Amino acid sequence: MPEETKKLGVGALVALVVSSSIGSGIFGIPTDMAGTSSPGAAIIAWIVVGIGALLLCLCFTNLIAKRPDLSGVFSYAEAGFGPFGGFISGWGYWLSAWLGNVAFATMMMSAVAYFIPAFGTGQNILSIIVASIVLWFMCFIVNKGVESAAILNVIVTVCKLVPLFLFNVIAIIAFKAEIFTADFWGTVSGNFELTDVFGQIQNSMMVLMWVFVGIEGAAMLADRAKTKAVAAKSTVIGLVLLLVVYTLTSLLPYGLMTRDEIVKLGQPSLGYILADVVGPWGAALINLGLIISIFGCWLSWTMLPAETTLLMAKRNLLPKKFGEVNDANSPTYSLVFMTILTQIFIFTLLFTEKAYNFAYSLCTAAIFVSWIMVAMYQVKYSYQHRKEKGESLQLVIGLITCIFYGWAIYASGFEYFLLCFTAYILGIFFYYQARKEINEEKVFNFKELFTAGVINFGACIAIYLLVTGKIVV
């Protein structure tokens, strides 16, 4: 088959962005949001996060257009800060992807438990066995070819959007303004109080940022797109669709139940809300939609980390073994390596009380590394070309994006950010091995050695916090 026919168009890439982001989080977002924010604070939080996500997308679209020679999120960090910078970004992205799959495994089994009670809370032996079968099935599909998996992803995306669309239509019809406005600001006085409302917004950051993980999917597969412009366009279209779906799905429940009632619901809370409005079939529909949704997101997040390690190996940021591909142009070694690590982590679900929350918190913290380094390169590139038309605006966009995601790291829980550093220790070993494969005499310069030292120091702090119970898993 000619190479051109395999290239991905706008439809496939938009589906990848949407499917990569809409996974398990949206089906539980009513309870997660109600637990941290009142309706008024939630609206402001969505505006803040929406602007932050838009700024990141603008950075991606600008860099894809200005540097079409670069491939993969990590490539921007490498171009701006050298090979070790590229490794740090790529490893963070890779970590985020497969840790997200662990979160999917837990939530998927919880949804299956609605139909088959033997699965319990999604963390018993039966759940682990079935989740493991799905995990290796994903590995098998992607190993048959990334482009074929992307086409399947389009079908899955359409299927999982149907129950969400139905929920929003029913919720709009059943919406009661008096319930929505009863405790609009969630303050003691009932009025807008800056400190209290800002605290609610800050507490909701991890939940909101988690549902946007995957927005960079089109940029990650830009090499497999028909053109770089197609990848940029797909990123923006995907963001707009996500914002519409997310804001409606998270805000409408405030007009169906009181905040206290929503907080007490089980997961996936969307199903319980719909069941309260239309009856038991609503919960069945949402749980079925959740299973399909996670399947699609899990598929996307099996493609993306495999593509990351493949590209990193080509850039000599990981050993050459990670860059070996089969006849279907899929990196088998990278896929199997990632699947084994995910399998090990899935086994730990037997000993973790809040596996889903812990996994998605780690996933989100890891992706922050890649996102903020994209923004940092945007700043560097725009400053270097500041005399050219439009670059002053791009510089401002990059600076604001850096500030936003720096704050997001703090607001979402700095301890999870530190915990990700522990996984960098293995990664640094692989990076060192890769640089030696190309006979590089001095692998680290002074700045890189200092950065590696900071990472290791942060990992030690994280381990201490974990042992002393300051970080609960």
TrEMBL record:
Domain of life: Bacteria
InterPro entries hit by this protein: AA/rel_permease1, Amino_acid_antiprt, APC_superfamily, Arg/Orn_antiprt_ArcD
Transmembrane segments: 44-65, 125-143, 150-175, 201-222, 234-256, 284-311, 332-352, 358-379, 391-410, 416-434, 446-467
Localization annotation: Cell membrane
Any Gene Ontology CC annotation: plasma membrane
Iron listed as a keyword: no
Protein's membrane topology: Multi-pass membrane protein
GO molecular function, one term: arginine:ornithine antiporter activity
One of the GO BP terms on file: L-arginine transmembrane transport
UniProt keyword Transmembrane, yes or no: yes
Keywords assigned: Amino-acid transport, Cell membrane, Membrane, Transmembrane, Transmembrane helix, Transport
Family: Belongs to the amino acid-polyamine-organocation (APC) superfamily. Basic amino acid/polyamine antiporter (APA) (TC 2.A.3.2) family.
Protein name in the entry: Arginine-ornithine antiporter
